[in-house]
Amino acid sequence: MWEIIKTSLPQLLAAGFKYTIPLAIISFFFGIIIALVTALTRLSRQRGPFMVLKWIASFYVWLFRSTPLLVQLFIVFFGLPYLRIKGILPHGIKLEPFTAGIITFSLNTGAYASETIRAAISSVPRGQWEAGAAIGMTRLQILWRIILPQALRVALPPLSNSFISLVKDTSLAASITIMEMFAVSQQIAAENYQPLLMYTLVAMVYAVFTTVLSYLQGYLERVVDRQVNANNR
């Protein structure tokens, strides 16, 4: 058993640092950008043609929150190659596994995180907007300098939890042939016929990763709290 652990653990860690962590970080980065744009679009009070964008943003959030992540991965990786449009996409949309994973995880994260950001921005008292406008600040300046820093304090814990969940959700990428940690554990288990040992080992590696991330989450929350408190003095 110890010999298997000694030979398998380096392979799992290598897959974790090569695929699992980069996949989670890149997807979360783009997901937060998508989430911020989506949240601001849905919160906007603009009328007229802008309402179409608000409807699209609402539909996007509904769609990705209403369907399983695994199904989304299969649609993007296995389904899009069959989206053939004569003269435009004669061969469909074929994506590399890692690219398909990033697109899917980013869109899924963006849908959930947009609700977190929208709720955080809405939690800032309306008087903050009025106070900023009273001293001559534009709406964009109020949002950037006053609203978002306060909203960050509220949104940080749930967003951090979303990132930790995303690290674990990357195990689904094995279904589209990305050789992240879980896929490597499956491959090794098929070779040594020790599935219980291998899946327990990869579960422990995930637990170590998420424990480190949880510690970093707590540290980041304390830093943000100190910064916000300093700005409020």
UniProtKB/TrEMBL annotation:
It is a multi-pass membrane protein. The keyword Nucleotide-binding does not apply. GO terms for molecular function: L-cystine transmembrane transporter activity. InterPro entries: AA_ABC_transptr_permease_3TM, ArtM/GltK/GlnP/TcyL/YhdX-like, MetI-like, MetI-like_sf. It is found in: Cell membrane. SUPFAM superfamilies: MetI-like. Residues 17-217 form the ABC transmembrane type-1 domain. The chain crosses the membrane at residues 21-40, 60-83, 196-216. The keyword Kinase does not apply. GO terms for cellular component: ATP-binding cassette (ABC) transporter complex. Keywords: Amino-acid transport, Cell membrane, Membrane, Transmembrane, Transmembrane helix, Transport. It comes from the Bacteria. Belongs to the binding-protein-dependent transport system permease family. This is Amino acid ABC transporter permease.
